[in-house]
Specification:
Chain lengths: ~325, ~550
């Protein structure tokens, strides 16, 4: 049964990635000017013809897609075209991807680490002063965009107090403290909004779960509140939270462009932006393909986790 | 009266006097009394990205400053505007200014260890003019092909000497060779290196490439650099520099204030508030370029409505330059009185169409009477840029007041550049013209940069488009063309200026293009950065302290490392 479930998810992944990348490749065919003309604005007709053949644009929409896909699955994500040469997209990604990955991982860890206890506590104290304070505070913070938080952090922590650097990314190889020092403010900026949204999601689900009969039964059996909250209520209440987290993970990989720009961390989001701005269609198609794969992979992972956390979910989905 | 400068007032007056003198003489605070120390690195925030390093990859402004740490130019421009040999050791011209002998300095080598000699100079010049592209040996020259189209041939006459023959006499050929700091001394291995020409810069500069990507350039000290300071210490002093592209002005300002950056560059186009803020900061030094950058409004003379003189006049009369300068530039720069600024040899107020709302309305009415159509056009701006939108909205306001309909066209920067050079817009704003001479002016306002040479190497090739591609207003005026070439052939400076003035007057009275305000650039750096502008040129004299491509880093050092 688990094998069927796994195969279904793999099939879904392939369908989604196919739809996204094929759609992208069709868009390239629809560009009014030939991509070769855009990539080589002052090139000769012969140079443009060579480029067109190299990219595969002379093979028609299907032929082009098949060529691109063949390259993509073998790890060849295409090239960035300059006036005097090319650069492999994979070279750019090797630098940009770890930046986005760490940013996304730290952001999720921080957001979940704060949102889970807050959500559980808020649901446990529903209607009380603590719940009202948490809910109102989160409502207020969720309405502040991440770039505004980033700018305030830069001004206060970076400029006034000079505790942390306001720019750049440092890899682990530069030292663990150097690495974290440069990640704290971008991670905080992205986390605040997520903390608010995760806490509210978890709180709503927890409140509903705490009204279930089996919770009343557990309480009447004399189990401690802590045990009821964490063992019996939290697990079934966390499905929405983790699904939302998974969706955000995909989004954070390619979508943190504003924060990447403010803190000059320049990850995958910036590469997407640069590919759009520079009309690097092949690079853009590969980047979109990769981001869509991450989206689907994270969602698949959540489906598996949900199955473990709440076996009813897995059985329902397989039987459906 | 005698108490006027006592106490606080005296101090204020003294400070103002020092500031005035510093700004007028364009001098950075001197650290000459302190002996420079070697070592240390700098992090510099810039507002342009790195599109590549081959001939057609035009590094803009602050990215050009970064690129010039790796590359040098054959000639350099002194603070007084004169262009003098730099990587060249000598220059000799024929009496008719149609032939120039260029001799390369001994003992200079590229970062890959190969010597700079006559062959390297020939390779560079042939690549710039497109000769190597035609042979399939080098990538496209890009717009450089248009800039150098007056060159007929390039011949090596001795190991280190090359003769350049021109089609039209050119007194200011060295300015063309300088191209406002853009014609680098590139290693032949880079130019002829195939796919790596754009990504692997190899020059002769004080720093060598460590890594480069769209948003960052990291360079390290070139230990085999050819220059020494006056004490015999091998230059440069710094171990390395990291240039980081920070599109957000706020990021550059906060980077400086939080000490994440040592230095950052700014432009008067939309960053005046931040420049003034930094000027108030005591831990910061801010230096400014002269007002030698002339953003133009290019009116496309080839297509409607601006193929009609009344339409061009209506536009030019409608723009309130004084108001624009106040609203958009906070009076940081000056409103235009000519298509170029007062420091430029072509400056002439005669014929320049100034703001006059009544005349604008009359010209728009005359256009309608002539064509039967209301005066209406589209104007592109950078989508997503609030500054760009605010600028065009301000111009739109003036047009509306004159009864002219201006439609705004949001496009990406890449799209704007893409469509600008095939002259596909009806009108557009773009800063191209700059400097005190005409090397970076004339190609944009003449119709054929080859001077009409029918046997030029690009003439019968697709690259022939480069002769006129730089003239974004797409106009052909043989009279102004000839005046410009005539001026270039005139040896006497005063006479030359007069001929240029006539060309300017003609172009302005036809309203081929117009200018609203002039522009300048600023560089802010922390107090631990020393030596800015102190290192002179090899043949005496100083460079310009600050330009659109920032400063020279060869003599810059860092204290308290």
């Amino acid at each position: 049964m688990r094998a069927t479930f796994f195969l279904q998810r793999i099939a879904q992944l392939l369908i989604v990635v196919f739809c996204v990348t094929f759609g992208c490749s069709l868009l390239i065919q629809l560009v009014p000017v030939s991509p070769a003309e855009i990539l080589l604005p002052v090139g000769s007709p012969e140079e443009r013809a060579l480029l067109t053949a190299e990219i595969g644009l002379d093979r028609g929409p299907i032929g082009y897609y098949v060529k691109w896909l063949g390259d993509f699955v073998t790890g060849n994500f295409g090239k960035i075209y300059y006036s005097g040469g090319t650069e492999e997209v994979s070279t750019r990604l090797a630098d940009a991807f770890p930046r986005s990955m760490w940013l996304m991982i730290y952001t999720q860890i921080l957001a979940l680490a704060i949102a889970i206890p807050l959500g559980v506590w808020s649901a446990y104290r529903v209607g009380r002063r603590a719940d009202r304070v948490i809910s109102n505070t989160l409502f207020a913070t969720s309405s502040i965009p991440s770039f505004a938080i980033a700018l305030v952090l830069v001004l206060v922590i970076g400029v006034r107090l000079q505790w942390l650097p306001t720019l750049d990314y440092q890899p682990y190889s530069a030292g663990i403290w150097e690495h974290f020092k440069h990640m704290i403010m971008p991670v905080l900026s992205l986390s605040v909004g997520l903390i608010a949204s995760y806490t509210r999601l978890l709180r709503a689900d927890m409140i509903a779960t705490l009204r279930e009969d089996y919770i009343t039964m557990a309480a009447s059996k004399g189990l401690t509140d802590r045990r009821i909250l964490w063992r019996h209520a939290f697990r079934p209440s966390s499905i929405t939270l983790f699904t939302s987290a998974a969706l955000n993970m995909g989004g954070l990989i390619g979508g943190a462009i504003v924060i990447e720009t403010i803190f000059a961390t320049y990850g995958v989001g910036f590469e997407v932006f640069a590919a759009i701005n520079g009309r690097q269609y092949i690079a853009l198609q590969s980047l979109v393909g990769l981001i869509s794969i991450f989206y689907v992979l994270f969602n698949m992972a959540v489906d598996f986790i949900a199955g473990f956390v709440d076996p009813r979910t897995r059985d329902r989905r397989v039987n459906a | 009266m005698k108490h006027l400068f006592k106490g606080g007032r005296r101090k204020v007056a003294a400070v103002m006097a020092v500031a005035l003198v510093a700004s007028l003489s364009q001098v950075a605070p001197s650290s000459a009394a302190v002996k420079p120390t070697s070592g240390g690195t700098l992090t510099v925030g810039i507002f342009d990205s790195f599109p590549g390093y081959c001939m057609a990859d035009n590094l803009a402004n602050s990215a050009l400053m970064a690129g010039r740490t790796i590359y040098e130019t054959w000639v350099e421009q002194r603070a007084d505007g004169k262009v003098v040999p730099y990587v060249l050791s000598a220059v000799e011209n024929s009496p008719d200014f149609k032939s120039w002998k260029l001799t390369v300095r001994d003992g200079v080598q590229f970062h890959d260890g190969t010597p700079v000699n006559g062959d390297a100079l020939v390779t560079n010049l042939q690549a710039l003019r497109g000769a190597l592209t035609l042979l399939g040996r080098a990538p496209s020259p890009g717009t450089a092909g248009g800039f150098t189209a007056n060159i007929v041939d390039v011949v090596k006459v001795a190991t280190n000497t090359v003769q350049v023959n021109l089609y039209r006499p050119q007194v200011d050929f060295l300015e063309t060779l300088y191209a406002s700091g853009r014609f680098f001394v590139r290693a032949p291995s880079q130019i002829l290196g195939g796919a790596k020409c754009s990504t692997t810069p190899i020059g002769t500069g004080p720093f060598k490439l460590v890594s480069t990507k769209l948003n960052e350039l990291v360079v390290a000290k070139n230990t085999a650099y050819w220059r020494e300071d006056k004490n015999g210490t091998r230059l440069p002093y710094l171990d390395g520099i990291t240039f980081t592209f920070l599109v957000e002005t706020a990021s550059r300002v906060s980077g400086l204030k939080s000490k994440s950056l040592d230095m950052a560059m700014f432009t008067s186009a939309g960053e005046v508030k931040q420049i003034r803020d930094l000027q108030q900061n005591k831990s910061m030094t801010v230096i400014e370029s002269p007002e030698e950058y002339y953003p133009s409004i290019w009116l496309n003379n080839r297509v409607a409505p601006f193929n009609n003189k009344n339409a061009r006049l209506a536009f030019s009369y409608a723009v309130d330059r004084v108001d624009y300068n106040k609203v958009r530039q906070r009076n940081y720069t000056s409103p235009a009185k000519s298509i170029v600024g007062p420091n430029n040899i072509m400056y002439n107020e005669k014929g320049f169409i100034q703001f006059d709302l009544k005349k604008a309305k009359d010209a728009a009415a005359a256009y309608k009477a002539e064509t039967g159509k209301d005066l209406e056009f589209s104007f592109p701006y950078t989508a997503g840029s609030t500054e760009s939108l605010a600028n065009v909205t301000q111009i739109q306001k003036y047009m509306t007041a004159a009864g002219i309909k201006m439609n705004l066209l949001p496009l990406t920067t890449a799209e704007i550049i893409q469509r600008a050079f095939p002259q596909q817009f009806q009108a557009m704003a773009l800063l191209l013209m700059e400097g005190t001479g005409t090397a970076f002016i004339a190609p944009f306002i003449t119709s054929d940069t080859s001077g009409g040479n029918q046997t030029h190497i690009l003439r019968k090739t697709p690259l022939a488009v480069l002769y006129g591609i730089l003239n974004l207003s797409a106009f052909t005026d043989t009279t102004s063309d000839e005046l410009i070439w005539q001026a270039k052939a005139t040896a006497n400076a005063a006479a030359r200026k007069k001929v240029y003035a006539r060309a300017t007057e003609l172009i302005q009275s036809e309203a081929r293009l117009t200018t609203i305000t002039y522009q300048k650039y600023a560089l802010a750096y922390r107090s631990n950065v020393k030596g800015v502008g102190e290192l002179g040129l090899t043949q005496g004299g100083q460079r310009k302290l600050m330009t659109n491509f920032g400063i020279d880093f060869t003599g810059v050092w860092k204290s308290g490392k």
